[in-house]
Amino acid sequence: MNSAERLREASLQRRDQEKQELRQLFLDTAAELFLEQGHERFSLRQVAERAGYSPATIYHYFENKDDLLSHVIDEGYQLFKKQFIAASTSTTDPIARLIALGRAYIDFGLQHPIYYQVIFMRRSDFLMRPRSGEQQPRAVTFQVVQQAIQEAMEAGLIQQGDAETFGDAFWAWMHGLVALSISMPMFTEERVRQVHAEFGRFLIQGLQPAS
Amino acid sequence: MNSAERLREASLQRRDQEKQELRQLFLDTAAELFLEQGHERFSLRQVAERAGYSPATIYHYFENKDDLLSHVIDEGYQLFKKQFIAASTSTTDPIARLIALGRAYIDFGLQHPIYYQVIFMRRSDFLMRPRSGEQQPRAVTFQVVQQAIQEAMEAGLIQQGDAETFGDAFWAWMHGLVALSISMPMFTEERVRQVHAEFGRFLIQGLQPAS
DNA sequence: GTTAAACTGTGAACAGTGTTTACCAAAACA
DNA sequence: TGTTTTGGTAAACACTGTTCACAGTTTAAC
User: Please, which pLDDT band fits residue A138 given cuts at 50, 70 and 90?
Assistant: First the structure.
């Protein structure tokens, strides 16, 4: 490889990096604006203005508004995934794991309501249509839950039954709490935690195997 | 009252009725369009066009888009209320009543997803801010639930506890099922009913008083 | 009966939105 | 040195909710 070729390659690389940097700038600005304004007010033109570019420029880096938004949402989902997986690996006891998963789920919803809202309430289609070869979210969020349930059943810690149905029930219960807290101002964080704690007992009690 | 006065009054009445009729036309057209297009696409200008009037005319009958929409939502809420109250009065047994209320709640959500979505997921503020002297929705939907819970507790049918917390848990559970079915296509009506039926048993079991 | 006031509806405009297209300057290539 | 590709943009299009000045009509007052 001669000098001219090396120069050419370096130039290409630099250009490519600059392109990636601008793309990242749009992504960061979009995420910032999205978390500031929420899903409803989030506007492409505002992203462009804040980033210091014309609205049309964004279309050279993203297909359209949905495309840009889906990447922002993905950041939120990765955050959720990380916290959820961390809770899953925090213990080996199936029951303790289920409790930890429930807590992690609710924690995420309460700490990142805007992300939660868009991921699980408004634009769930972004998660349902698998992106970049990944599996569906149901896989990661509820494979882990279902696995814990399965283990608990096999260990005789809870009643026998269909693990998938149990998993969906688990999801519905957690989602109900978080979604209500987001939609209804009266449903404060404190209230959610109290209902969750108090009623979790009855659930566990009802799930105990007949002795 | 002489002839001239009577004529004047009749004329006034006619004008007033025409005004009410046009207002109702806007309301009907809006409800129709809303149920057709959903909350996101619902547009004032489309309502105007379909009703055969200029967009500006609507502003003589409603404050703004939100005002018009809130009246549409109210129709949906009245429907919900009717079905919910009907379920409540269908039996005197507290446990049976709770089960009937749960079923009615889920039925409404599955049969009127667009109304449910806007009432309980997107624009809950419309219900929270009391309109036309009515009480808050929490009152009607969950007074009835709380009452049944209270009765069940007093009759010794379920464990003692805070009826409000029990009511919120009931709500969260039902809302979780319905909200997931609306957000996640995989959560079919069939699946919701199955999870509801299967898991209701465990809930009831867990709530049974220690014997 | 004439005049003034109130009512009813509208066209046009404003400030937004997402998106497309033609164009321009600068860089890369031949 | 042309020539071609690239990165960015202004302008336009088709929408949105909302406001406002302005008509035509109906009512009220003198």
Answer: low
Please indicate whether residue A38 or residue A19 has the higher confidence score (pLDDT): A38
Question: What average pLDDT does chain A have?
Answer: 89
Q: Kindly list the distances between the CA atom of residue A161 and the CA atoms of B137, B199, B205, in Å, as whole numbers in the listed order.
A: 36, 10, 15
Would you call B183 and A124 a contact, using CB atoms and an 8 Å cutoff?
yes
DSSP class of A210? P
Long-range contacts for B80-85 (Cβ within 8 Å, ≥24 apart)? B80/B108, B80/B112, B80/B115, B80/B116, B80/B119, B80/B141, B81/B140, B81/B141, B83/B107, B83/B108, B84/B108, B84/B140, B84/B141, B84/B144, B85/B140, B85/B144
Which has the higher per-residue pLDDT, A84 or A13? Answer: A84
- How does DSSP assign B118-172, residue by residue? IIIII-THHHHS--TTPPPHHHHHHHHHHHHHHHHHHTTSS----HHHHHHHHHH
DSSP letter at A120 equals I
Q: Are A164 and B166 in contact (CB under 8 A)?
A: no
Helix axes B189-207, A189-207, angle to 10 degrees: 80
- b/e per residue, B135-159, with b = 16+ CB within 10 A? eebbebbbebbbebbebbbeeebbb
CB A32 within 8 A of CB A76: no
Which tokens belong to B84? 């919910």
Chains A–B, number of C-beta pairs less than 8 Å apart: 101
Contact between chains at B138 and A176 (C-beta distance less than 8 A): no
Task: Using the structure, give the distance in angstroms from the CA atom of B147 to the C1' atom of D8, rounded to a whole number.
Answer: 65
Q: What is the pTM of this model?
A: 0.91
Contacts of B63 (CB under 8 A, 6+ apart): none
Three-class SS state of A97: helix
Judged by a CB distance cut-off of 8 A, whether residue B162 touches chain A is yes
Cβ atoms of B30 and B76 within 8 Å: the answer is no
8 Å CB contact between B146 and B167: yes
Residues in chain B predicted with pLDDT less than 70, given as ranges, are 1-15, 130-139, 211
Average pLDDT over residues A139-166: 90
Statement: residue A6 has pLDDT above 90: no
A193 Cα to chain B: minimum distance (Å): 11
Burial-class residue A21 by CB neighbours within 10 Å (0-12, 13-18, 19+).
exposed
User: Tokens for B27?
Assistant: 């309301």
